[in-house]
Amino acid sequence: MTDIMAELTWRDAINQVIDEDGLKKLTQEKAISLYCGVDPTGSSLHIGHLIPFMVLKRFQLAGHHPVIVIGGGTGAIGDPSGKNSERKLQTMDQVQANKDHLTAQMVKLFGTDNFTIVDNYDWLSKLSLLDFLRDYGKLFNVNTMLNKEIVASRLEVGISYTEFTYQILQSIDFLHLYKYNDVQLQVGGADQWGNITAGTDLIHRQEGADAKVFGLTIPLMLKADGTKFGKTAGGAVWLDPERTTPYEFYQFWLNQDDRDVVRYLKYFTFLSHAEIEDLAKEVAAAPEKREAQRRLAQEVTKFVHGEQAVVEAEHISKALFSGDVTDLTAEEIEQGFRDVPSVDVTADKANIVQWLVDTKIEPSKRQAREDVTNGAITVNGQRIREVDFELDPKAAFDGRFVIVRRGKKRYFLARVK
Known about the structure:
Elements lengths: L3 H7 L5 E2 L2 H10 L3 E6 L8 H15 L3 E6 L21 H19 L5 E4 L1 H4 L4 H8 L5 H6 L1 H4 L8 H4 L1 H16 L1 E7 L3 H15 L6 E5 L12 E2 L2 E2 L9 H9 L3 H11 L4 H13 L5 H15 L1 H16 L7 H7 L5 E4 L4 E2 H7 L6 H9 L3 E3 L2 E3 L5 E2 L9 E6 L3 E7 L1
Helix pairs in contact: 10-11, 12-15, 12-16, 13-14, 13-15, 15-16, 16-17, 18-19
């Protein structure tokens, strides 16, 4: 079988491992089942979730069996990891709606072959309080739990008993999956180390010290400037195309720093070692071409949204760069012009000068006439030079939009109502 551990090491995808030699030996001997959990605290995954999922996907491509736990049970409690305050509890209806959305996104990433999705509500909800305390609470030492980073970091500001017990619930997940799904490895972010080791300890207490179970965490992903990966001025970069369009998603990867791009190619793409090394040479020799960033954007967008999304994103990018927007579809305009200033307009025809003032694209008729006369105004890709030009809002893009460009780069979008 593929030496998955060597592959992960080359791609800088390993932070900490429980018994690395044992895990390497096991994965070379047979196909294993491994899992990662995600709580349904929102209706969409973001690219931060891709960090552990990329590892699961590599295991899947190497012939192993990934299991995703969508935490319908733990999601009702709240994971204290990475938080400096209590999470707000969600209604069970909201948890269910989020689970449905996340399940669909998981299937898109992992397919349905050699892949399993489970919900820990199915087993955690059946635990009575007495069973929880007798069967599991007795096996956890409070002093040990207090020393785990996920709890210790919260002691000054306080942590509820509810969130304090989260590591026990996650440990029960690992035990359940070990017994009923033959799962031997848990994968998580760097902040999950305490939860993962608690799980392996529980399995060894329940199933015996010779039980072959392992944990693996992913390095904290930081950008070259020291800031957290995955955040933009507009917030998180979502996998849901309604929240972050495929064009915006593509642009996020295209705009990565030269200092980060090779590391991201290793981590977030399935390109071969040779292809990535060639792109690294391109970065060193001709960084202005941004060939590595383009390939990164293509590969990750294809993985998350599909090949057609890449075609559309590049079509939009080319149109915006050249100013020739005439070939864009209305759907591509929805993607590419989401962040430009926009205004609602009627479908009535109007004089271009008056229309520019009414939409506040121009501050005054004098300025509007001057810009039109100087050729600084293009409408739907056509340069307008006549001050008596009659604009028809329904003339292009299925009658839904008017795109105005003032100067070389300032775009405005009018939505026809």
